[in-house]
Amino acid sequence: MKKYLIVIDMQKDFVDGVLGSPQAVSAVSEVVREVTDPAYTKVFATMDTHTPEYMSTLEGKYLPVPHCIRDTEGWQINGQIAEALQKRDAVIVEKGTFGSTDMAVQIAAENPDEITLCGVCTDICVISNALLLRAYLPNTEIRVKAIACAGTTPENHEAALKVMKSCQIVTEEE
Fold first, then answer.
1. Cα–Cα distance between 17 and 12 in angstroms, integer?
2. How confident is the model over 1-51, as pLDDT tens digits?
3. How far apart are the first and last CA of the chain?
4. What is the CA radius of gyration of the chain?
């Protein structure tokens, strides 16, 4: 059985940097637990990746906080998670927007039996990638490990989980 894990944007800026939160910091140990779980046959990790011109983009207009600028400290994956990902020989996917169609296409071509997502932000990038995968893999079991996620707010986290459930994505609380 091919089981894939996708770790979404667990980078310094989203964990304990300019857009960080206590919930994201709390998710780190849960993400590490998922990454080190030998039940996953393949692990992917996305990196939100922007250029210094971020503020002139549409996203920069709506979220006017420079973050995850390539090659800055805030762009780096959290140290504990990076170490775990390296041990798993994870596939790292840079993405310039919320969801990665390139990753969805690659994973669809590999046709795994099950996919689990975790990371940040539940209500932006996690949900975007979950719904892309649902579109590309309509008959694949897709799960979100809620305890290993954090949203922009706790309320937005819960709202995103609710939406994903309505799109036949299993949300696991533990």
1. 5
2. 999 999 999 999 999 999 999 999 999 999 999 999 999 999 999 999 999
3. 22
4. 15
Token readout for 42 is 């393949």
Residue 116 per-residue DSSP state: E
* Amino acid at position 105, single letter: V
Q: For 136-162, what is each residue's pLDDT tens digit?
A: 999 999 999 999 999 999 999 999 999
The CATH number given to whatever domain includes residue 35 is 3.40.50.850
| Angle between helix 22-35 and helix 79-87 axes, rounded to 10 deg | 10
Of 147, 171, 153, 151, the C-alpha closest to 161 is 171
How are beta strands 91-95 and 42-48 bridged, if at all? parallel
The residue segments making up the domain with residue 42 are: 3-172
With tokens 């309509």, the residue in question is 138
* Domains of the chain: total: 1
Q: Write the single-letter amino acid at 67.
A: H
Q: Please state the separation of Cα 43 from the chain's center in Å.
A: 12
Closest C-alpha to 140, from 89, 104, 174, 172? 104
